[in-house]
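Customer escalation, tier 2.

The customer says the design service returned an amino acid string that "doesn't look like it belongs to this structure." They asked us to rerun it and document both sides in this ticket. The original C-alpha coordinates are below, unchanged.
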Protein backbone atom coordinates (compact mmCIF):
# COMPACT_ATOMS: atom_id res chain seq x y z
CA UNK A 1 0.00 0.00 0.00
CA UNK A 2 2.78 2.39 1.03
CA UNK A 3 4.42 1.70 -2.32
CA UNK A 4 1.26 2.59 -4.25
CA UNK A 5 0.85 5.85 -2.36
CA UNK A 6 4.50 6.68 -3.03
CA UNK A 7 4.08 5.93 -6.70
CA UNK A 8 0.91 7.99 -7.00
CA UNK A 9 2.66 10.96 -5.40
CA UNK A 10 5.63 10.57 -7.73
CA UNK A 11 3.41 10.48 -10.79
CA UNK A 12 1.06 13.19 -9.66
CA UNK A 13 3.53 15.84 -8.62
CA UNK A 14 5.31 16.26 -11.99
CA UNK A 15 1.96 16.22 -13.84
CA UNK A 16 0.34 18.79 -11.56
CA UNK A 17 3.52 20.87 -11.42
CA UNK A 18 4.11 21.02 -15.15
CA UNK A 19 0.54 21.75 -16.22
CA UNK A 20 -0.05 24.34 -13.52
CA UNK A 21 3.17 26.20 -14.31
CA UNK A 22 2.64 25.91 -18.05
CA UNK A 23 -0.55 27.91 -17.71
CA UNK A 24 -0.41 31.62 -17.47
CA UNK A 25 -3.44 33.71 -16.73
CA UNK A 26 -6.67 32.68 -18.32
CA UNK A 27 -7.43 29.30 -19.79
CA UNK A 28 -9.17 30.66 -22.86
CA UNK A 29 -11.22 27.77 -24.07
CA UNK A 30 -14.91 27.77 -23.39
CA UNK A 31 -15.40 25.05 -26.01
CA UNK A 32 -17.15 21.81 -25.19
CA UNK A 33 -14.70 18.91 -25.33
CA UNK A 34 -17.38 16.58 -26.60
CA UNK A 35 -21.08 16.95 -27.18
CA UNK A 36 -22.70 14.66 -24.67
CA UNK A 37 -26.25 14.46 -23.48
CA UNK A 38 -27.00 16.80 -20.58
CA UNK A 39 -27.61 14.91 -17.34
CA UNK A 40 -30.70 16.90 -16.36
CA UNK A 41 -31.11 14.85 -13.21
CA UNK A 42 -27.91 16.35 -11.77
CA UNK A 43 -29.19 19.94 -12.03
CA UNK A 44 -32.59 19.35 -10.42
CA UNK A 45 -34.25 22.18 -12.32
CA UNK A 46 -37.87 22.58 -11.13
CA UNK A 47 -40.65 22.01 -13.63
CA UNK A 48 -42.71 24.96 -12.36
CA UNK A 49 -42.70 27.92 -9.99
CA UNK A 50 -41.54 27.28 -6.45
CA UNK A 51 -44.46 26.81 -4.04
CA UNK A 52 -44.39 29.12 -1.01
CA UNK A 53 -43.15 27.79 2.33
CA UNK A 54 -45.77 27.61 5.08
CA UNK A 55 -45.83 30.89 7.04
CA UNK A 56 -43.61 31.03 10.14
CA UNK A 57 -46.06 30.82 13.06
CA UNK A 58 -43.31 31.20 15.64
CA UNK A 59 -42.91 27.47 16.30
CA UNK A 60 -39.55 26.74 17.90
CA UNK A 61 -37.96 23.66 16.36
CA UNK A 62 -35.55 21.42 18.26
CA UNK A 63 -33.29 18.47 17.42
CA UNK A 64 -31.79 15.55 19.35
CA UNK A 65 -28.55 16.12 21.32
CA UNK A 66 -28.76 19.90 21.35
CA UNK A 67 -30.57 22.35 23.60
CA UNK A 68 -30.77 24.98 20.87
CA UNK A 69 -34.10 25.97 19.33
CA UNK A 70 -34.85 28.07 16.25
CA UNK A 71 -37.88 29.32 14.35
CA UNK A 72 -38.20 28.60 10.61
CA UNK A 73 -37.15 32.18 9.89
CA UNK A 74 -34.07 31.92 12.12
CA UNK A 75 -33.02 28.63 10.52
CA UNK A 76 -32.68 30.35 7.14
CA UNK A 77 -31.93 33.81 8.48
CA UNK A 78 -29.00 36.14 8.18
CA UNK A 79 -27.10 34.11 10.78
CA UNK A 80 -28.42 30.63 9.99
CA UNK A 81 -29.09 28.04 12.68
CA UNK A 82 -25.94 26.63 14.27
CA UNK A 83 -27.45 23.52 15.82
CA UNK A 84 -24.24 21.85 16.96
CA UNK A 85 -21.48 24.37 17.81
CA UNK A 86 -19.43 21.51 19.27
CA UNK A 87 -19.15 19.92 15.81
CA UNK A 88 -16.95 22.65 14.34
CA UNK A 89 -14.11 25.00 15.34
CA UNK A 90 -15.32 28.11 17.17
CA UNK A 91 -15.74 30.94 16.65
CA UNK A 92 -16.84 30.66 13.04
CA UNK A 93 -15.36 33.42 10.89
CA UNK A 94 -17.86 36.28 10.74
CA UNK A 95 -18.38 35.87 6.97
CA UNK A 96 -19.22 32.18 7.42
CA UNK A 97 -21.62 32.68 10.33
CA UNK A 98 -23.24 36.01 9.42
CA UNK A 99 -22.22 37.09 5.93
CA UNK A 100 -22.66 40.77 5.13
CA UNK A 101 -25.77 42.89 4.55
CA UNK A 102 -26.24 45.70 2.01
CA UNK A 103 -25.95 48.30 4.80
CA UNK A 104 -22.48 46.95 5.59
CA UNK A 105 -21.16 46.79 2.03
CA UNK A 106 -21.18 44.21 -0.76
CA UNK A 107 -23.80 41.57 0.09
CA UNK A 108 -22.52 38.11 1.06
CA UNK A 109 -24.93 35.40 2.16
CA UNK A 110 -23.51 33.51 5.16
CA UNK A 111 -21.70 30.38 3.90
CA UNK A 112 -23.26 28.43 6.77
CA UNK A 113 -26.70 28.67 5.16
CA UNK A 114 -25.89 26.62 2.06
CA UNK A 115 -22.71 24.77 3.09
CA UNK A 116 -23.77 24.29 6.73
CA UNK A 117 -21.53 25.31 9.66
CA UNK A 118 -19.65 21.98 9.38
CA UNK A 119 -19.10 22.36 5.62
CA UNK A 120 -21.02 19.18 4.75
CA UNK A 121 -23.22 21.13 2.33
CA UNK A 122 -26.10 19.70 0.35
CA UNK A 123 -26.48 18.03 -3.06
CA UNK A 124 -27.79 21.19 -4.72
CA UNK A 125 -24.75 23.22 -3.67
CA UNK A 126 -21.43 21.66 -2.64
CA UNK A 127 -19.51 20.14 0.23
CA UNK A 128 -16.61 22.31 1.34
CA UNK A 129 -15.35 20.52 4.48
CA UNK A 130 -11.84 19.14 4.23
CA UNK A 131 -11.03 20.86 0.92
CA UNK A 132 -7.34 21.75 0.57
CA UNK A 133 -6.93 25.45 1.35
CA UNK A 134 -5.15 26.24 -1.93
CA UNK A 135 -7.83 24.42 -3.96
CA UNK A 136 -10.58 26.31 -2.10
CA UNK A 137 -8.93 29.68 -2.77
CA UNK A 138 -8.36 28.78 -6.43
CA UNK A 139 -12.06 27.96 -6.85
CA UNK A 140 -13.05 31.29 -5.31
CA UNK A 141 -10.71 33.04 -7.76
CA UNK A 142 -12.25 31.07 -10.64
CA UNK A 143 -15.74 32.14 -9.53
CA UNK A 144 -14.57 35.74 -9.27
CA UNK A 145 -13.01 35.65 -12.74
CA UNK A 146 -16.13 34.13 -14.33
CA UNK A 147 -14.24 30.95 -15.12
CA UNK A 148 -16.55 28.72 -13.16
CA UNK A 149 -20.11 28.78 -14.47
CA UNK A 150 -22.86 26.22 -14.61
CA UNK A 151 -23.67 24.74 -18.02
CA UNK A 152 -27.33 24.99 -16.95
CA UNK A 153 -28.32 28.70 -17.06
CA UNK A 154 -31.28 28.07 -14.78
CA UNK A 155 -29.02 26.91 -11.92
CA UNK A 156 -29.57 30.08 -9.91
CA UNK A 157 -27.60 29.13 -6.82
CA UNK A 158 -24.44 28.67 -8.91
CA UNK A 159 -24.82 32.28 -10.04
CA UNK A 160 -25.37 33.34 -6.42
CA UNK A 161 -22.09 31.59 -5.54
CA UNK A 162 -20.26 33.58 -8.22
CA UNK A 163 -21.63 36.85 -6.87
CA UNK A 164 -20.67 35.88 -3.32
CA UNK A 165 -17.07 35.23 -4.39
CA UNK A 166 -16.93 38.57 -6.20
CA UNK A 167 -18.17 40.40 -3.10
CA UNK A 168 -15.61 38.86 -0.73
CA UNK A 169 -12.20 40.22 0.24
CA UNK A 170 -9.05 38.08 -0.01
CA UNK A 171 -8.90 37.99 3.80
CA UNK A 172 -12.46 36.70 4.06
CA UNK A 173 -11.78 34.02 1.46
CA UNK A 174 -8.64 32.92 3.31
CA UNK A 175 -10.51 32.77 6.63
CA UNK A 176 -13.32 30.67 5.13
CA UNK A 177 -10.84 28.36 3.38
CA UNK A 178 -8.92 27.76 6.62
CA UNK A 179 -12.10 27.26 8.62
CA UNK A 180 -13.71 24.70 6.31
CA UNK A 181 -10.38 23.07 5.40
CA UNK A 182 -9.68 22.35 9.07
CA UNK A 183 -12.80 20.19 9.36
CA UNK A 184 -12.93 16.51 8.47
CA UNK A 185 -15.07 15.46 5.52
CA UNK A 186 -17.61 13.16 7.19
CA UNK A 187 -19.65 10.33 5.61
CA UNK A 188 -22.72 11.98 4.09
CA UNK A 189 -24.25 9.90 1.27
CA UNK A 190 -25.66 6.38 1.33
CA UNK A 191 -25.58 4.96 -2.19
CA UNK A 192 -28.38 2.49 -2.95
CA UNK A 193 -28.52 0.51 -6.21
CA UNK A 194 -32.05 0.02 -7.48
CA UNK A 195 -34.12 -0.60 -10.63
CA UNK A 196 -36.99 1.58 -9.45
CA UNK A 197 -37.14 4.80 -7.50
CA UNK A 198 -39.89 6.85 -5.87
CA UNK A 199 -41.83 9.16 -8.18
CA UNK A 200 -40.36 12.58 -7.54
CA UNK A 201 -40.44 16.30 -8.04
CA UNK A 202 -37.63 18.75 -7.32
CA UNK A 203 -37.64 21.57 -4.82
CA UNK A 204 -34.59 23.81 -4.72
CA UNK A 205 -32.63 21.09 -6.54
CA UNK A 206 -33.59 18.30 -4.12
CA UNK A 207 -35.68 15.27 -5.16
CA UNK A 208 -38.72 14.58 -2.99
CA UNK A 209 -41.59 12.06 -3.26
CA UNK A 210 -44.52 13.42 -5.30
CA UNK A 211 -46.95 12.98 -2.43
CA UNK A 212 -44.76 14.99 -0.04
CA UNK A 213 -45.54 18.62 -0.70
CA UNK A 214 -43.91 21.53 1.08
CA UNK A 215 -46.72 21.95 3.64
CA UNK A 216 -46.50 18.27 4.63
CA UNK A 217 -42.79 17.98 5.42
CA UNK A 218 -43.38 17.34 9.11
CA UNK A 219 -45.73 14.42 8.49
CA UNK A 220 -44.98 12.78 5.13
CA UNK A 221 -43.13 9.53 4.61
CA UNK A 222 -39.48 9.55 3.63
CA UNK A 223 -38.58 8.36 0.13
CA UNK A 224 -37.47 4.94 1.37
CA UNK A 225 -40.98 4.18 2.61
CA UNK A 226 -43.04 5.57 -0.24
CA UNK A 227 -44.52 2.94 -2.54
CA UNK A 228 -45.26 5.01 -5.65
CA UNK A 229 -42.29 4.14 -7.89
CA UNK A 230 -41.02 4.32 -11.47
CA UNK A 231 -37.96 2.93 -13.33
CA UNK A 232 -34.77 4.79 -12.42
CA UNK A 233 -33.34 4.63 -15.95
CA UNK A 234 -30.01 6.39 -16.39
CA UNK A 235 -30.43 8.81 -13.50
CA UNK A 236 -29.20 9.30 -9.97
CA UNK A 237 -31.84 10.58 -7.59
CA UNK A 238 -30.58 12.23 -4.40
CA UNK A 239 -32.96 12.75 -1.53
CA UNK A 240 -32.78 13.39 2.22
CA UNK A 241 -32.49 10.50 4.67
CA UNK A 242 -35.03 12.49 6.69
CA UNK A 243 -37.09 15.08 4.84
CA UNK A 244 -38.12 17.06 7.90
CA UNK A 245 -34.54 17.29 9.21
CA UNK A 246 -33.05 18.28 5.86
CA UNK A 247 -35.74 20.58 4.53
CA UNK A 248 -37.14 22.25 7.64
CA UNK A 249 -34.32 22.14 10.20
CA UNK A 250 -31.36 22.10 7.82
CA UNK A 251 -29.82 19.65 10.28
CA UNK A 252 -26.09 19.43 9.46
CA UNK A 253 -25.98 15.87 10.82
CA UNK A 254 -28.79 14.57 8.58
CA UNK A 255 -27.36 12.94 5.44
CA UNK A 256 -28.56 11.86 2.02
CA UNK A 257 -29.47 8.82 -0.04
CA UNK A 258 -28.32 8.51 -3.65
CA UNK A 259 -30.41 6.03 -5.62
CA UNK A 260 -28.32 4.77 -8.55
CA UNK A 261 -28.92 2.17 -11.29
CA UNK A 262 -28.07 -1.44 -10.48
CA UNK A 263 -24.43 -2.23 -11.34
CA UNK A 264 -23.39 1.45 -11.40
CA UNK A 265 -20.83 1.18 -8.58
CA UNK A 266 -18.96 -1.74 -10.14
CA UNK A 267 -18.92 -0.10 -13.58
CA UNK A 268 -17.72 3.16 -12.04
CA UNK A 269 -14.93 1.38 -10.21
CA UNK A 270 -13.63 -0.11 -13.47
CA UNK A 271 -13.80 3.29 -15.19
CA UNK A 272 -12.02 4.98 -12.28
CA UNK A 273 -9.22 2.44 -12.49
CA UNK A 274 -8.94 2.84 -16.27
CA UNK A 275 -9.03 6.63 -15.94
CA UNK A 276 -6.43 6.61 -13.17
CA UNK A 277 -8.44 9.04 -11.06
CA UNK A 278 -6.44 8.10 -7.97
CA UNK A 279 -3.18 9.32 -9.53
CA UNK A 280 -4.39 12.84 -8.90
CA UNK A 281 -7.28 12.48 -6.43
CA UNK A 282 -5.27 10.17 -4.19
CA UNK A 283 -5.71 6.61 -2.91
CA UNK A 284 -9.38 5.90 -2.25
CA UNK A 285 -10.05 9.25 -4.03
CA UNK A 286 -9.66 10.95 -0.64
CA UNK A 287 -7.64 13.87 -2.02
CA UNK A 288 -3.93 14.37 -2.60
CA UNK A 289 -1.92 17.49 -1.77
CA UNK A 290 -3.77 20.44 -3.31
CA UNK A 291 -6.26 18.23 -5.19
CA UNK A 292 -9.74 17.73 -3.75
CA UNK A 293 -11.06 14.43 -2.46
CA UNK A 294 -14.13 13.17 -4.30
CA UNK A 295 -14.86 10.10 -2.13
CA UNK A 296 -18.23 10.12 -0.41
CA UNK A 297 -19.36 13.45 -1.88
CA UNK A 298 -22.83 13.85 -3.31
CA UNK A 299 -23.24 12.28 -6.74
CA UNK A 300 -25.17 15.14 -8.30
CA UNK A 301 -22.54 17.72 -7.28
CA UNK A 302 -19.76 15.54 -8.71
CA UNK A 303 -21.76 15.03 -11.92
CA UNK A 304 -22.31 18.76 -12.40
CA UNK A 305 -18.60 19.33 -11.84
CA UNK A 306 -17.65 16.75 -14.48
CA UNK A 307 -20.25 17.85 -17.01
CA UNK A 308 -19.52 21.57 -16.57
CA UNK A 309 -15.80 20.94 -17.06
CA UNK A 310 -16.49 18.77 -20.08
CA UNK A 311 -18.70 21.46 -21.60
CA UNK A 312 -16.08 24.12 -20.88
CA UNK A 313 -18.31 26.35 -18.72
CA UNK A 314 -16.07 25.47 -15.77
CA UNK A 315 -12.62 26.31 -17.06
CA UNK A 316 -10.68 27.35 -14.00
CA UNK A 317 -6.94 27.63 -13.84
CA UNK A 318 -6.59 23.96 -12.85
CA UNK A 319 -9.42 22.53 -14.99
CA UNK A 320 -7.09 21.68 -17.88
CA UNK A 321 -5.78 18.75 -15.85
CA UNK A 322 -9.22 17.19 -16.11
CA UNK A 323 -9.59 17.72 -19.87
CA UNK A 324 -7.80 14.59 -21.07
CA UNK A 325 -9.76 12.61 -18.46
CA UNK A 326 -13.10 13.96 -19.69
CA UNK A 327 -12.43 13.98 -23.42
CA UNK A 328 -13.64 10.43 -24.03
CA UNK A 329 -16.30 10.04 -21.36
CA UNK A 330 -19.99 9.67 -22.21
CA UNK A 331 -22.70 11.00 -19.89
CA UNK A 332 -23.48 7.41 -18.92
CA UNK A 333 -19.86 6.71 -17.98
CA UNK A 334 -19.72 9.87 -15.89
CA UNK A 335 -22.85 8.71 -14.07
CA UNK A 336 -21.13 5.44 -13.15
CA UNK A 337 -17.98 7.26 -12.04
CA UNK A 338 -19.86 9.58 -9.69
CA UNK A 339 -21.99 6.71 -8.29
CA UNK A 340 -18.75 4.92 -7.46
CA UNK A 341 -17.03 7.99 -5.98
CA UNK A 342 -20.10 8.80 -3.85
CA UNK A 343 -20.13 5.23 -2.51
CA UNK A 344 -16.56 5.43 -1.17
CA UNK A 345 -15.81 6.01 2.49
CA UNK A 346 -14.30 9.49 2.75
CA UNK A 347 -12.39 8.74 5.96
C1 LIG B 1 -26.94 30.44 -1.80
C2 LIG B 1 -26.16 29.29 -1.46
C3 LIG B 1 -24.67 29.46 -1.24
C4 LIG B 1 -24.05 30.24 -0.31
C5 LIG B 1 -24.67 31.18 0.71
C6 LIG B 1 -22.64 29.97 -0.44
N1 LIG B 1 -22.42 29.07 -1.43
FE1 LIG B 1 -20.63 28.27 -2.01
N2 LIG B 1 -21.55 27.14 -3.42
C7 LIG B 1 -22.90 27.21 -3.73
C8 LIG B 1 -23.16 26.41 -4.91
C9 LIG B 1 -24.51 26.24 -5.58
C10 LIG B 1 -21.92 25.85 -5.30
C11 LIG B 1 -21.67 24.94 -6.48
C12 LIG B 1 -21.45 25.75 -7.71
C13 LIG B 1 -21.21 24.87 -8.90
O1 LIG B 1 -22.11 24.09 -9.22
O2 LIG B 1 -20.13 24.94 -9.47
C14 LIG B 1 -20.93 26.32 -4.33
C15 LIG B 1 -19.59 25.98 -4.37
C16 LIG B 1 -18.64 26.47 -3.51
C17 LIG B 1 -17.23 26.11 -3.55
C18 LIG B 1 -16.57 25.11 -4.49
C19 LIG B 1 -16.46 23.73 -3.86
C20 LIG B 1 -15.66 22.74 -4.67
O3 LIG B 1 -15.55 21.58 -4.27
O4 LIG B 1 -15.10 23.11 -5.72
C21 LIG B 1 -16.61 26.84 -2.57
C22 LIG B 1 -15.15 26.81 -2.22
C23 LIG B 1 -17.63 27.66 -1.92
N3 LIG B 1 -18.84 27.40 -2.51
C24 LIG B 1 -17.38 28.57 -0.88
C25 LIG B 1 -18.36 29.37 -0.28
C26 LIG B 1 -18.07 30.36 0.75
C27 LIG B 1 -16.72 30.67 1.32
C28 LIG B 1 -19.29 30.92 1.09
C29 LIG B 1 -19.56 32.02 2.10
C30 LIG B 1 -18.89 33.27 1.95
C31 LIG B 1 -20.30 30.29 0.25
N4 LIG B 1 -19.70 29.37 -0.56
C32 LIG B 1 -21.65 30.60 0.32
C33 LIG B 1 -23.87 27.88 -3.02
C34 LIG B 1 -23.64 28.74 -1.97
C1 LIG C 1 -4.04 14.62 -14.02
C2 LIG C 1 -4.70 14.79 -12.77
C3 LIG C 1 -6.17 14.36 -12.66
C4 LIG C 1 -6.73 13.15 -12.98
C5 LIG C 1 -6.06 11.94 -13.58
C6 LIG C 1 -8.11 13.24 -12.58
N1 LIG C 1 -8.39 14.46 -12.04
FE1 LIG C 1 -10.20 15.13 -11.40
N2 LIG C 1 -9.39 16.96 -10.98
C7 LIG C 1 -8.09 17.30 -11.19
C8 LIG C 1 -7.93 18.72 -10.89
C9 LIG C 1 -6.64 19.52 -10.99
C10 LIG C 1 -9.20 19.19 -10.49
C11 LIG C 1 -9.59 20.63 -10.13
C12 LIG C 1 -10.12 21.29 -11.38
C13 LIG C 1 -10.44 22.75 -11.22
O1 LIG C 1 -9.92 23.38 -10.30
O2 LIG C 1 -11.23 23.26 -12.02
C14 LIG C 1 -10.10 18.06 -10.55
C15 LIG C 1 -11.44 18.13 -10.22
C16 LIG C 1 -12.29 17.05 -10.25
C17 LIG C 1 -13.66 17.09 -9.82
C18 LIG C 1 -14.39 18.29 -9.24
C19 LIG C 1 -14.10 18.37 -7.75
C20 LIG C 1 -14.78 19.53 -7.05
O3 LIG C 1 -14.63 19.65 -5.83
O4 LIG C 1 -15.49 20.28 -7.72
C21 LIG C 1 -14.18 15.84 -10.00
C22 LIG C 1 -15.60 15.37 -9.69
C23 LIG C 1 -13.13 15.01 -10.56
N3 LIG C 1 -11.99 15.78 -10.71
C24 LIG C 1 -13.27 13.68 -10.88
C25 LIG C 1 -12.26 12.90 -11.48
C26 LIG C 1 -12.46 11.54 -11.92
C27 LIG C 1 -13.76 10.76 -11.77
C28 LIG C 1 -11.27 11.12 -12.47
C29 LIG C 1 -10.96 9.81 -13.14
C30 LIG C 1 -11.87 9.39 -14.19
C31 LIG C 1 -10.33 12.23 -12.34
N4 LIG C 1 -10.99 13.30 -11.74
C32 LIG C 1 -9.02 12.22 -12.75
C33 LIG C 1 -7.07 16.48 -11.62
C34 LIG C 1 -7.22 15.18 -12.08
Amino acid sequence: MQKIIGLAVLIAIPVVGSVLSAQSGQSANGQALVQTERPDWAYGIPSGPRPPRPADNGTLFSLPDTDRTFTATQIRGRSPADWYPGDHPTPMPDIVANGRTAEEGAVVRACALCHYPNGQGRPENASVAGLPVSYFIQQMDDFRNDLRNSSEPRKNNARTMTQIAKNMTDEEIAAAAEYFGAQPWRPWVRVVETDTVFKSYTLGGIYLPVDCEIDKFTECEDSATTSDTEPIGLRIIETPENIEHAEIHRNPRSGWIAYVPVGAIEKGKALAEAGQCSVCHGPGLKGLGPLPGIAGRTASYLMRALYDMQQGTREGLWSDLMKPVLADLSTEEMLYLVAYAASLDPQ
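Tier 2 assessment: The sequence is consistent with the input. The longest helix spans residues 2-22. The first strand starts at residue 61 and ends at 62. Sent an explanation to the customer and offered a walkthrough call.
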